[in-house]
Q: What sequence folds into this?
């Protein structure tokens, strides 16, 4: 809202402006310089989904659909009247990349539609509901929000995988102390009663490349994963042992850190001393070992 910007706007004599992913709120003094307002494309079904990361949150909430809306900007965040809306269904197979593909197609078409309607003076602006119960403020998501908690129901974890996939960094867990990104997965029910700890590998299916992991309720079937420093593989190529337990081993990591600290202290105080190494994990299997001979290293069920 500096005088230079206001003068530049007035010199162009604009009727209307469009906004996509503008990072800040626009002050009323600037909004008032456009007779038809500034139109914003918002990747959420207003007023229900206001704010940030709306497609991701819609998938996480397992909504039946998401929407993109064109609204006239006001001083309040995502609160102006809506001039156009287009909906996209969300299914258990919808990934966030599908939502972005929809937005790339829908946003330009909706802008053209609204600008044509404004020119023909047939545009209809519908005020958003002011009732707090009808609006939902969505806050930003951080990469760490995509860490998998295996105690959660499988349906929630499958939604997390789909909401965190490309173009984002992916949902992740840990396997033998290293990050394991899960790019593709689905939720299923177990066909029989079971007892086990969430995160436990329950079944490996070499014929499909899938790995079944116990959750707080149901199972998550891992389809495509990426271990730290490697490329993407079918899950059964990376995880080939039914003994495997996914998730952060906090107590094990603390033990290794304590050993490392003791080793460093010993080297500082006694440079010639040798600190014994911690015992290796008999169940730890590297990716290269799991691929030898093209078969499972551990055939336990």
A:
């Amino acid at each position: 809202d500096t005088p230079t910007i206001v003068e530049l706007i007035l010199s162009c004599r604009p009727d209307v402006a469009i906004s996509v992913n503008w990072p800040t709120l626009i002050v009323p003094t600037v909004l008032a310089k456009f007779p038809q307002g500034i139109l914003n494309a918002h990747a959420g079904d207003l007023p229900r989904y206001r704010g940030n990361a709306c497609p991701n949150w819609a998938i996480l909430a397992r909504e039946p659909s998401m929407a993109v809306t064109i609204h006239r900007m006001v001083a309040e965040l995502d609160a102006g009247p809506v001039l156009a809306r287009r909906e996209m269904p969300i299914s258990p197979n919808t990934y966030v990349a599908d939502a972005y593909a929809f937005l790339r197609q829908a946003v330009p078409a909706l802008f053209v539609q609204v600008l044509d309607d404004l020119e023909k003076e047939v545009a209809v602006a519908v005020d958003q509901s002011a009732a707090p119960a009808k609006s939902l403020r969505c806050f930003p998501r951080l990469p760490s929000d995509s860490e998998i908690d295996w105690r959660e129901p499988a349906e929630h974890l499958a939604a997390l995988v789909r909401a965190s996939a490309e173009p984002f960094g992916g949902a992740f867990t840990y396997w033998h102390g290293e990050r394991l990104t899960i790019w593709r997965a689905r939720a299923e029910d177990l066909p029989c009663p079971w007892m086990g700890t969430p995160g436990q590998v329950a079944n490996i299916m070499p014929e499909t490349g899938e790995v079944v992991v116990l959750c707080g309720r149901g199972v998550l079937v891992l389809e495509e994963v990426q271990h730290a420093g490697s490329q993407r593989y079918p899950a059964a190529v990376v995880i080939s042992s039914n003994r495997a337990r996914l998730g952060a081993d906090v107590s094990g990591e603390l033990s290794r850190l304590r050993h490392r600290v003791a080793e460093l202290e010993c080297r500082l105080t006694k440079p010639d001393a040798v600190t014994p190494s911690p015992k290796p994990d008999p169940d730890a299997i590297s990716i290269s070992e799991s691929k030898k001979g093209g078969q499972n290293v551990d055939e336990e069920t």
The CA atoms of residues 10 and 170 lie 45 Å apart. The helical segments are 3-12, 28-31, 54-60, 96-119, 154-164, 235-238, 250-269, 287-291. The chain has two domains: 3-138, 143-248+283-291. Residues 282-301 have pLDDT under 50 and may be disordered.
